[in-house]
Specification:
heterodimer, A: 697 residues, 5 domains, globular, B: 550 residues, alpha+beta, Beta-Lactamase, 2 domains, 7-stranded antiparallel sheet
């Protein structure tokens, strides 16, 4: 009798491709596929991918004991405005929270900006008499007598979903709950989201936006998740499906259907989780993950194998990825900087004669000029092709014909002519501009986070990450790069390392010196129990890790610092050490504490996750072996701006211990790793490619 | 000097822009002053060895545009480069050298490479309190307004002057925050210098000459090209403002030639006895900002792009106030200068310039009363910021309750109530307050608040457009004026004063609406119907302003 293998499968449905990965009990990838996303019915594409991967793994769907799913569906519905017709109900006197927002323009010099479309026009913004104080005391009771009129107004809006956001509901949710129950009794057909459940944090504008976004995608995501689960069950899947969240954890289908807003950006989160997993396994304390695809690049800081997290995210930023131009949602997310720089980013020369790249992208249709599918303007991929970093014969497993001459002509015409450069000079310029912009974004992001890029190891993946890693690292002052196995399907692989987790942030204003410990302990009891019950639905038995956090700052400052709290009720004895922990963290970021200042706390959070048991495992380095691959290719040197020969090698021919000096191209089915002239390549014991920069004085 | 290709120079320029942004972020993150962190009221810049500005961070308010460039020029004249040592930093808060009032501190640091000064970093930030009468218009001269520090050396080869820090602490109600903010400024200069040297090492540069040439030449060429498309001529405009003790006239003459825009304030009223006077550097910053929004907005600020814009004014007009005039609230009128200059530009470029807006922000510092504090009441201090509507654009409606020309953030009600003992009962757009037009001005908002405890509170007012509304353009109507009252009191409250609100009294303030653009009769009936359906325009308003029958 054959032992049934225990396999786990992850599927990541992206805008263009659906990636499927299967791992065995040792978490070794035994099959991975890329299939086209089927937009009509995404479950179908996922099923095709799963079937192909199962064939490659020589397994049956019944053998799958863990199934993790991530999707851009929620994000896309928000960006493409394909959600429900939402009405809002806010406190009387505050009908215009959305329109008034933060009273600011996101672009200083552009007098023709338009305000972000926040999905609910004023006609569908309703109010109800009631009032809570900041401390959660009822100032005015919810006026039940106003309900018939409210129902009439609601009917007139034609809304099929409702977002309720009453002032200070994070401090006392009773009015929101009462109103929801009353509405539900009268209109059971309505889908209702209340802000005290979706995002119980102070700042009415952000909380309302988050609640609207949740209500907007809830009907559709609930239907989709139902259909997805049914489709796989029908094919014989026996295990429950867990959903990947923006925070980098997994959650149950039931929770996902209730809070679909937490599913946005789960694909990129998977990439960061993969990088964190590799960081843990390789014992890397400071990492910069670099995920570059066709239209955007994402960078994430990972310290001690923990991706940086944030509580805020913006959906659908206007062109140029301007901060403040999107719809803010406050949910736990892995903090990433995303910029409009990918293989498809279009290059050009502006009216001042400045060379520019992106954020406009040729995407996959019409795509780069060299793909011959109608693209006419040169892109980053065209530059990489002209410079010889992408070799025509190996690109995308030979699925595309690459027209190198067309790429060069486009570069020479659009960039070279206005700047007096040939195709190589133009391609080199495009590459430098785009790589510098990614490095700059990374540096600025690090400063904003009070961190430094220099000592970090870059973990590069995504279709274009390994190709641009050396160039971006050089600009960013990073000297070590790691390219993991299967870099082209990094996000899906990452899903398989995510814990089942749930995080709740709740606002309550306290000054450290006058803190009401009883109230804070009660608050933690309630959010811990709530988060634990969600986690237990996804995993009933595993060991649990609980992180309690206070977001602290000096009174008068706007920037908060996360301070970990002990996993137990707080006592007066904890206050001294907490103040000390804050001052120490503050000094690390701003070089010195400020004596005599009052410390205040607005937000409290708990993060409960199944233990991942990630620990650095030493693997002895095999003996080094300098290799000199016989195959060579002409490339344009990215350091000295001249033509040189580069080594050319297939990744599957390399074994641990192999080392060679750049320039070199290491090709594999879904991407190429370009080893710059000033880098050396080493294959480590796990098969990761390690690129080290030879620093000249 | 070896030839560097334009593509590589562009890469370096991009890096330099990233360096100033990093510099600015460092300052904002470490700052204590609420207006800095909420509104980004700072600037950070990099200068070449000749003191020409190469890059400036795009931060929250335009009040520092070019003021820093002028300040660096003055400090370099006062302190010769030969005398500078690595680690030195210079400082001043002189309103006529830095940024128009005592709260703005400016620092400048020489950057050394191979023993030579190769450039400078500089930054400005708003400190919370410099003593005197504090942030309000009540001072009668600059000496009433607090501590003025002439140009001096703050840091000597890495060592912070203990005496200067003692003086700054001893002259402030917020000594610790002030000290913290000065340290943030020092960190900002140092971060910029460090990043600049690193960048030069990365690109193997010994001097900034070639890069400076490229940036300034490219920017000047682009700006001149944009100016050449503005019809040459002389354009006049005039506006009446509420003022403090009496109404004021602001006058402008804009002379456009092929390579220059020259704005002059001749004819503008003389100074006020109170602190709403504006040093020319500040009036220049906002005027140039407005011109650059229309002309060459895509070109970053630097010596090349700013050079063709010249602003002058007769001494002792209120937009070129001389020492020792009080200037604490110089932003009240300073923020009106964009409307003044846009009124000139509209004549040259009728399809590019928006109508007048509320413009001056409704900055409302509030605190406990002295008697409440004496009786053991709750002490607090908050600064609420709210805005009116912006002017309608030639192809678009104005923005409701949105800051322009400043870039401040409005306060969130839940945050205000968590930190101050007030209850806000209403914050809603004010129907019919947007000036009618083919394109409608942005709406103002109504805010109502009471004390949430049994104690009074104080509000320090210095706002505009309570009597003189934002005018429309091209046939558009004016927006509504602002209005401040206390429910139950017979008379409205003046725009510039100290107001005491008793427990149980309700303070109601309406911010002004923006002016309309184009004849209201030309408004798309669909857009008017939409405005009425959403309640932004009432049936009465539609009849009155648009002649609409029902």
């Amino acid at each position: 009798m054959i032992q049934t293998p225990t396999l786990r499968l992850a599927t990541d449905i992206g805008g263009t491709f659906t990636d499927t990965v299967i791992v065995d009990e040792q978490d070794t990838v035994i099959a991975s596929t890329k299939t086209l996303t089927t937009h009509e019915n995404p479950a179908e594409g996922a099923m095709q991918g799963a079937k192909r991967a199962l064939v490659a793994a020589k397994a049956r769907i019944e053998d799958i004991s863990g199934f993790i799913h991530g999707t851009t569906l929620a994000t896309n519905a928000l960006i493409e405005k394909r959600g429900a017709r939402v009405a809002t109900i806010t406190t009387q006197g505050f009908r215009d929270i959305l329109e008034i927002a933060y009273e600011r323009r996101y672009s200083q010099y552009d007098i023709n900006i338009e305000k972000t479309d926040l999905l609910v026009p004023r006609e569908r913004s309703l109010t109800v008499p009631e009032r809570m104080s900041a401390a959660g005391e009822v100032i005015e009771a919810l006026d039940v007598g106003a309900l018939p009129k409210l129902l009439e107004e609601l009917e007139a809006t034609g809304a099929d979903a409702v977002a309720i956001c009453l002032l200070h509901s994070y401090a006392n949710s009773s009015h929101e709950e009462q109103l929801r129950d009353l509405l539900h009794a009268a209109r059971p057909d309505l889908v209702i989201s209340i802000s005290s459940e979706v995002s119980p944090e102070a700042r009415e504008f952000d909380r309302l936006c988050t609640t609207i976004a949740n209500a907007y995608i809830q009907p559709m995501m609930a239907r989709y998740l139902d259909a997805f689960a049914a489709r796989f069950a029908q094919e014989g899947l026996r295990c429950p499906i867990l959903m990947m969240t923006a925070g980098g954890g997994m959650t149950t289908l039931q929770t996902a259907a209730q809070f679909p807003i937490r599913l946005v950006e789960s694909g990129p989160a998977g990439g960061a989780i993969l990088a964190a997993h590799i960081a843990a396994e390789s014992g890397l304390d400071e990492v910069l993950s670099f995920d570059m695809g066709g239209t955007t690049a994402k960078l994430c800081l990972i310290d001690k194998a923990q991706p940086q997290s944030s509580r805020q995210f913006e959906i659908g930023r206007a062109a140029r990825f301007i901060k403040g131009s999107g719809m803010p949602v406050r949910i736990p997310v892995i903090e990433m900087i995303e910029i409009g720089a990918g293989g498809g980013s279009i290059a050009g020369v502006d009216r001042l004669g400045r060379l520019t790249v992106g954020p406009k992208s040729a995407g996959s249709e019409p795509g780069p000029v060299a793909f011959g599918r109608g693209g006419t303007e040169p892109t980053v991929s065209d530059a990489d092709i002209a410079l010889g970093y992408i070799q025509a014969e190996t690109f995308a497993e030979g699925q595309f014909q690459i027209d190198v001459a067309a790429a060069k002509t486009a570069l020479a015409t659009f960039i070279g002519e206005p700047l007096g450069l040939d195709a190589f000079g133009a391609g080199d310029g495009v590459s430098r501009i785009v790589d510098e912009s990614m490095a700059s974004a990374g540096r600025t992001h690090a400063v904003e986070s009070g961190k430094d890029l220099g000592p970090r190891t870059m973990i590069a993946f995504g279709g274009n990450g390994p190709l641009h890693a050396c160039r971006v690292a050089r600009s960013a002052g990073v000297e070590r790069i790691l390219v993991p196995a299967n870099p082209g399907v990094g996000s899906a692989v990452g899903f398989l390392f995510a814990p089942v987790s749930f995080e709740i942030v709740r606002s309550r204003y306290e000054m450290l010196q006058t803190i009401d410990l009883g109230a804070i302990n009660t608050l933690f009891d309630s959010i811990c129990a709530e988060a634990l019950s969600v986690v237990r639905q996804g995993d009933a038995t595993s060991e649990i890790e609980t992180r309690r956090i206070a977001y602290m700052r000096y009174h008068g400052q706007g920037h908060e610092i996360e301070i970990g709290l002990p996993d137990r009720p707080l006592t007066a004895d904890d206050l001294g050490p907490l103040a000390a922990a804050f001052e120490a963290a503050y000094s690390r970021q701003f070089s010195r504490p400020v004596p005599g200042m009052v410390i205040e706390i607005l937000n409290w959070s708990v993060h409960i996750a199944t233990a991942t048991g990630r620990e650095a495992v030493q693997m002895p380095m095999p003996p080094l072996r300098t290799i000199s691959p016989p195959e060579r290719r002409h490339i344009f040197c990215d350091v000295h701006a001249r033509h040189v020969e580069a080594a050319f090698v297939h990744r599957d021919s390399l074994v641990p211990g192999d080392t060679l000096s750049g320039p070199a191209l290491v090709v594999e089915p879904q991407t190429t790793t370009f080893v710059g002239t000033d880098f050396t390549l080493l294959v480590d014991a796990r098969g990761n490619l390690i690129l080290n920069r030879e620093v000249t004085a | 000097m070896t030839h560097i290709s334009p593509a590589r120079l562009q890469v370096m320029w991009n890096r330099l822009l990233a360096v100033v942004e990093e510099q600015g972020q460092t300052l904002i993150r470490a700052a204590f002053s609420p207006i800095v962190r909420e509104c980004g009221d700072i600037s950070a810049g990099i200068f070449d060895a000749q003191g020409q500005m190469l890059a400036q961070a795009v931060t929250g308010t335009p009040g520092h545009i070019n003021t820093m460039a002028e300040a660096v020029k003055t400090l370099r004249e006062r302190f010769p480069a030969q005398m500078m040592k690595p680690g030195d930093i210079y400082m001043t808060n002189d309103p006529w050298l830095a940024s128009g009032h005592l709260n703005d501190f400016l620092l400048m640091m020489p950057v050394f490479k191979s023993g030579q000064v190769i450039g400078y970093t500089s930054c400005t930030s708003h400190l919370v309190d410099l003593g005197g009468l504090g942030m309000g218009p009540e001072g009668s001269d600059i000496y009433d307004e607090g501590l003025l520090i002439p140009p001096c050396k703050l840091v000597d080869q890495g060592e912070v002057s203990a005496l200067l820090m003692d003086i700054v602490r001893a002259n402030s109600r917020e000594p610790i925050a002030n000290e913290g903010d000065i340290y943030a400024l020092i960190a900002c200069c140092e971060a910029g210098a460090d990043r600049l040297v690193r960048m030069m090492n990365d690109y193997e540069l010994e001097t900034l000459d070639a890069l400076s040439d490229y940036i300034i030449t490219t920017s000047r060429r682009g700006t001149l090209d944009a100016i050449s498309r503005v019809p040459a001529g002389v354009y006049f405009n005039e506006m009446t403002m509420d003022g403090y003790e009496k109404p004021l006239t602001l006058k402008a003459k804009l002379t456009v030639t092929e390579d220059r825009l020259h704005l002059d304030f001749a004819g503008t009223s003389g100074c006020s006895a109170k602190g709403i006077n504006v040093p020319l550097n500040y009036a220049t910053a906002y005027s140039v900002f407005a011109m650059r929004c229309i002309i060459g907005a895509d070109i970053p600020n630097n010596a090349g792009s700013l050079e063709p814009f010249v602003v002058t004014g007769p001494t002792d007009c209120i937009l070129n106030a001389q020492r020792p005039a009080p200037v604490a609230m110089r932003h009240t009128l300073g923020q009106m200068t964009p409307d003044l200059v846009l009124g000139c530009l509209h004549q040259a470029l009728p399809d590019k310039v928006p109508a007048e807006g509320a413009s001056c922000m409704y900055d409302l510092p509030m605190r406990h009363t002295a008697d409440a504090a004496r009786n053991g009441g709750r002490e607090f201090a908050v600064e609420l910021v709210h805005n009116g509507g912006t002017g309608a654009r030639p192809m678009l409606d104005g923005l409701s309750a949105t800051a322009f020309p400043s870039g401040v953030f409005g306060s969130q009600v839940e945050m205000t109530e968590a930190t101050a003992p007030v209850t806000i009962w209403k914050r809603e757009l004010l129907p019919d307050s947007g000036g009618a037009g083919q394109f409608r001005g942005g709406l103002g908002q109504r805010i109502e608040m009471t004390s949430s405890i049994d104690e009074p509170f104080l509000v320090f007012l210095s706002v505009e457009r309570l009597r003189n509304p934002a005018a429309g353009r091209a046939g558009g109507l004016a927006g509504a004026v602002g209005r401040i009252r206390v429910d139950g009191r017979p008379a409205d409250i003046a725009g510039k004063c100290e107001l005491r609100v008793e427990p149980g009294e309700r303070l109601i303030f309406d911010t002004p609406g923006g002016g309309g653009f184009g004849d209201p009769a030309e408004r798309d009936p669909g857009l008017l119907a939409q405005d009425m359906a959403s309640g932004l325009v009432t049936p009465d308003g539609a009849r009155r302003d648009y002649g609409a029958g029902l």
